C-alpha cells in the first residue's frame, strides 16, 4: 500500500462523518424541527381590519405556513415580545430578587372638591387593582378627600395621605393639574417605591412578575411611541427615575406630554440597563383613538387576556362610554371591556341597590 493510498483512507473517515452530520442536521432543521417566527406585529396591527380576537400568541411554521400549532406563553413573556409597537425593545429578563415593594399609589388632585366626584369607574379601577395585585398597602394621595358613596365604599381598603399642592419644580411654574400629578407620582415612587396607577387603570393580571426590576414602564403607541406614565413600577430611588426627575429642570408647562411620555422613551434608548420596557399590549392597548375605544367598549372583538392592565383613557372615553357605565350595564351588555371587568362586581356590597345607582357617585 502506497503512502498516497494510506493518506486517502485516513482523510475519508472525517470526510464521511462530516457528510453524515450535515445530512442529519439538514433533515432535523427542515423536517423535524421547523423554523418558527412570531406572527405578532401583524397579529396586532391588523386586528381591526381582520376582526381577529387575540387569545394567545400564534407561532407559525415558516416552512409549511401552517398555523396548526399554538403555544401558550405567559403575560410577562408576551409583554416582553419585541415588534409589537416596540421595535427598539430593551427588554430584560428579571432576576429573582424582588426590588419593588408590593404597594400601590394613587394620586387624586382634584383641587376643586366639586369637580368630577370619585365615581363608579374609580371604584371599579381601585377594586380591580386591590383584588388582583393584593398589595400590602394602597396609598391614596389627595388634596381634597372625596365624599361620594363610591369613595366611602373603597376607603376602608386605602391608606389616605394628604399631599402638597405643586406650584413649581426647579423654579419652573406648574399650573396644569395633570402635570402636578406627574410630579407627585414620581416623588412618591422615588421615596417609597411601589406601583403607581392612574385612577382609570383596570388591572387584569397580578403584577408579581414585574417587581424584580429596578424600573418598569410600558409603551404607548399612538402618534409615535412613548412611555406612558399612567403605570409606573419602581424601586425606591431607582436610577432611571432619579434621572427623569432631574430632567424636569427644563420643564415647560405648555408642553402637554413631553416630560411625562416622550422624555422617558428617549431616556430608555440611552439608559437601557436601568429600565424594563414592556410593549404596548401590557397596559395601553387598545388606545384612546375612536376606533380603539369602540373596539374595547362597543364590540366583542378584543380579548384582554394578554393585558396586565387596561387604561380606560377616561379623558377621551368618559363622555361617550364611561359616563353611562353601571353595574347593570356591565352585567347585561356583551362587550370586550364588560367581559374583562364583570368579575369585579362580585365585590359590591350585598345590599347594593341598583335602582338608586348614580354614575357620579352622588347617591349616599
UniProtKB/TrEMBL annotation:
UniProt KW Membrane keyword: yes
UniProt xrefs under InterPro entries: GlycoTrfase_DXD_sugar-bd_CS (IPR007577), Nucleotide-diphossugar_trans (IPR029044)
One Pfam family named in its UniProt record: Gly_transf_sug
Keywords associated with the record: Membrane, Transmembrane, Transmembrane helix
Regions crossing the membrane: 12-28
The organism's place on the tree of life at top rank: Eukaryota
Family membership noted in the UniProt record: Belongs to the glycosyltransferase 32 family.
Protein name from the UniProt record: 23393_t:CDS:1
Organism field: Cetraspora pellucida
Organism ancestry: Eukaryota, Fungi, Fungi incertae sedis, Mucoromycota, Glomeromycotina
Amino acid at each position: 500500500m502506497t503512502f498516497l493510498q494510506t493518506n486517502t483512507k485516513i482523510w475519508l473517515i472525517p470526510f464521511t462523518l462530516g457528510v453524515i452530520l450535515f445530512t442529519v442536521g439538514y433533515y432535523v432543521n427542515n423536517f423535524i424541527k421547523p423554523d418558527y417566527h412570531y406572527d405578532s406585529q401583524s397579529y396586532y396591527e391588523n386586528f381591526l381590519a381582520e376582526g381577529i380576537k387575540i387569545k394567545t400568541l400564534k407561532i407559525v411554521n415558516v416552512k409549511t405556513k401552517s398555523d396548526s400549532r399554538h403555544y401558550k406563553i405567559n403575560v410577562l413573556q408576551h409583554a416582553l415580545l419585541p415588534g409589537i409597537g416596540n421595535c427598539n425593545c430593551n427588554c430584560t429578563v428579571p432576576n429573582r430578587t424582588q426590588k419593588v415593594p408590593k404597594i400601590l399609589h394613587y394620586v387624586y388632585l382634584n383641587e376643586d372638591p366639586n369637580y368630577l366626584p370619585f365615581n363608579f369607574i374609580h371604584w371599579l379601577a381601585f377594586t380591580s387593582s386591590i383584588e388582583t395585585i393584593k398589595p400590602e398597602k394602597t396609598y391614596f394621595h389627595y388634596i381634597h378627600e372625596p365624599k361620594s358613596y363610591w369613595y366611602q365604599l373603597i376607603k376602608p381598603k386605602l391608606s389616605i395621605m394628604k399631599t402638597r399642592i405643586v406650584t413649581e419644580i426647579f423654579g419652573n411654574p406648574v399650573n396644569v393639574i395633570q402635570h402636578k400629578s406627574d410630579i407627585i407620582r414620581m416623588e412618591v415612587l422615588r421615596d417609597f417605591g411601589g406601583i403607581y396607577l392612574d385612577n382609570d387603570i383596570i388591572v387584569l393580571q397580578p403584577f408579581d412578575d414585574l417587581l424584580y426590576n429596578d424600573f418598569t414602564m410600558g409603551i404607548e403607541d399612538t402618534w409615535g411611541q412613548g412611555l406612558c406614565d399612567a403605570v409606573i413600577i419602581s424601586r425606591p430611588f431607582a436610577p432611571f427615575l432619579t434621572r427623569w426627575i432631574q430632567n424636569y429642570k427644563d420643564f415647560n408647562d405648555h408642553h402637554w406630554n413631553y416630560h411625562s411620555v416622550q422624555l422617558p422613551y428617549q431616556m430608555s434608548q440611552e439608559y437601557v440597563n436601568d429600565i424594563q420596557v414592556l410593549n404596548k399590549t401590557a397596559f395601553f392597548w387598545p388606545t384612546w383613538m375612536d376606533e380603539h375605544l369602540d373596539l374595547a367598549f362597543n364590540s366583542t372583538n378584543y380579548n384582554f387576556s394578554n393585558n396586565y392592565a387596561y387604561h380606560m383613557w377616561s379623558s377621551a372615553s368618559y363622555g361617550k362610554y364611561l359616563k353611562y357605565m353601571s353595574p347593570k350595564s356591565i352585567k347585561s351588555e356583551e362587550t370586550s371591556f364588560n367581559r374583562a371587568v364583570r368579575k369585579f362586581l362580585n365585590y359590591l356590597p350585598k345590599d347594593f341597590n341598583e335602582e338608586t345607582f348614580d354614575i357620579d357617585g352622588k347617591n349616599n
